[in-house]
Amino acid sequence: MEKEAMEGHVNVMLPQENLRSDLPNGGIVLGHDKEISTLQEEISALRSRQRHLNRRRREALGKLIDLKGSIRVFCRVRPSISTSNIKIKSPVTVEQENIAVRAVGIKKDSSVDRVFDQESTQDDVFHEVKPILRSALDGHNVCILAFGQTGTGKTYTMEGTSDNLGAVPRAIQELFSHAAQDTSSTYSFSISMLEVYMGSLRDLLAPRQQPLFRSIEGNTTCNLSILATTSGSVQVEGLTDVAVPDLKKANQWYCRGRRSRSTSGTNVNNVSSRSHCLTRITIRRCGGVTEQVSKLWLVDLGGSERLLKTGASGLTMDEGKAINLSLSALGDVIAALRRKRSHVPYRNSKLTQILSDSLGDGSKVVMVVHISPSKDDVGETICSLGFAKRARLIESSRELSEDLKMLKRKRLAELDKEICDAEQELGVLNEQIRSAERSVEERKKLSPSVCQALSDDKGSPRSILVAGHIDAVDSPQATERAKSRMAHHGSVPHFMSATVCSRQRHGAASHSVSKPRLTRSVNTYSSKPSGSQSFSHSASKAKSVALSSGEPRLKYLSVKSDQINVSSNSIDSTAASAPRPRPRESLVSRPVQRAPLHQHRRRMSCLT
Ligand SMILES: Nc1ncnc2c1ncn2[C@@H]1O[C@H](COP(=O)(O)OP(=O)(O)OP(=O)(O)O)[C@@H](O)[C@H]1O
C-alpha cells in the first residue's frame, strides 16, 4: 500500500459497488462493518500518500531555506512622514536586494535578501516571512526579529493596525489555518509574551495585579529567571504559557499582551516601545507516536536610538540605554555566530539568553531591519544597515558570482514549484481524508441508533432495521415520495404487511401491523473526485436488516428487501428461530441511546 502511494497511485475503491458485488444473491444488503473497513483501507492509502508528500515538501522546504540561508535579512523602508508639501529627495534609494545611501560625504551600498520599499504592504512582508513558519510547524525553532532605529516601523511591521494586520497576527492565523488543513498531524499551540525591560523580564500575560515596571521604578518583583536545560533548550521560569485552542483565543491573549507593553512618548515616536517585546508561540505537533515541540519567537526589538536626538531624560533615557546595551549584545552574538566561534556570548544580555536556542544551529531566523527615508536619520540608517550586514554574513556563502547567483535562482524556483505542487496535492488529499473519515463516523453512528431503537421496545417489541442504505433520505423529495406511497398502501409500506407465514405463527388478529417499529439508517457519503484519487460513492440501493430479540444484544442479518415481512410482534420470537433467507453477515452490537421519534418517522417514511 505504502509503495503504491509512493508512486502516486491511490487505489480508492468504491465501497458500495464493492460490497454489492460481494453479495451472492442479489447484492441488496451491505455488510455494514465491511463497508467501514473498506473506507478505512482507503483512508490508510490516502494517509500513506500524504506522509510521502509531506516528507517531500519538508525536504524541499529544508533545501530551499538552506539555499536562501538560515538567517535571512530583509530591509523595510518606512514611508516618509514629512508633513511639508515640498518633496525632499530621500538619501535612500532601493532596488530589489540593494540599498544605496547617498548624502554629503556619505556613499554606502548594502545588500540584503529582500528590500521592501516605502510602498510595500504588510502582505508583501508576510509573503516573505511565511515559508519560515512552515519550518516552525516542521519542528525547527524559528525567530522573526524586527530591528531598527526608533520610529521606523518595527511595531507597525510586527503588530500592524486593525485594518493592516502585522506579521504576528498573520503568523498566528497561518499556524491555525495550516493546523486545520493538515490531517497528517495534530497541532496544539500555546502563547507566552514577555518584555525585556531595563535588563529584566516581565510577563505580559501574567494576572493583572502584577505591578507595571514604569509605574513602580526599580521594581524587580516581576523579574523572571532564565533556565537552560541540559538538552540546550531555554525556559523562562514562571512565564505564563497559555494554551490557545483556537484563533480567537490566541488573538485575545495576544491583544492582552500588547496592551501591557511599556510605551512612552519621545521626540521621535509618540508611542515608542521602551522595551523588547517577545511573543512566543510553542507548537506541539503530534504525528503518530512522536511529539515534536518547537518555538516561534516573534520579536519587536526596542528602537536603537541616539539619546540626544530622542530628547530622552530620566527613566526614558535609562530605558534607551538598556535597549542599546542589549542590542549591542545581540550584535555580538551575531558576530560570534558569523565567525563560527566556539563561544557565543549569549549570556551578556537577557534578550540573547532567551533567544539562545533559536538563533544558532538548526534554527531559522528572519531579521527585518527598518530604516527611515529621511535625511536627518542617515547616521542611524547606516548603523542599522551595518547591523544587517553583520547578520547576513553569518552565512558565509552570501557573496556569489553572477553565474552562481543565476543557478541559485533557478534551483530556488524549482524548489518553490516542488513545494507548491506538493501543497496543492496535500490540500486535495486532506479534503479526501476528511470526507472519508466523516463517512466512517456516519456509518459507525448507524449501529448505536439502531440498537437503541431496537432495545427501546416498551409495548412494541418488534423492530426492524434497514441499515446501510445510502440515500438522501432526508430530502424533501424523498419524504414526499414516501408519503405518497404510504397513502397509497395504507399506513405502512407494502412490504411490511404480514406474510401468511407470520400470521399463522403469531395470530394475525391479535398482532396488528399498524405500528411496526422501524428505523432506516440514514447515511450519505460524498466526496469530490480529484486527480487520480476518486472518491465518488454513488447512492447504494443495498439494504441490511437487523432483527432484534429485544435483548441488549442485537443481531444484524442480511436479507433481500423483498423478503422483509414484518408482522407486528412476530420478529422477536421468530428472529432467532425462524428460517431466514441465508444470513450472510452477523455482528453483535450494543443498544445505545433512543433515536428521536421524529427520526424514526422520517426514516420510515423514506422507505421504498
Ligand atoms: N510601513 C508603514 N506604513 C505606514 N505607517 C507606518 C509604516 N511604518 C511605520 N509607520 C508609522 O510610523 C509610526 C512609528 O512606527 P512604529 O511605532 O511602528 O515605530 P517603531 O520602530 O516601533 O518605534 P519604537 O522603536 O520607538 O517603538 C507609527 O505611527 C506607524 O503607524
UniProtKB/TrEMBL annotation:
Biased composition regions of type Polar residues, renumbered to the chain: 520-529
Name by which UniProt lists this protein: Kinesin motor domain-containing protein
Keywords tagged on the record: ATP-binding, Coiled coil, Microtubule, Motor protein, Nucleotide-binding
Pfam families per UniProt: Kinesin
Basic residues bias (residue ranges): 597-608
GO CC annotations, alphabetized: microtubule
InterPro entries: Kinesin-like_fam (IPR027640), Kinesin_motor_dom (IPR001752), Kinesin_motor_dom_sf (IPR036961), P-loop_NTPase (IPR027417)
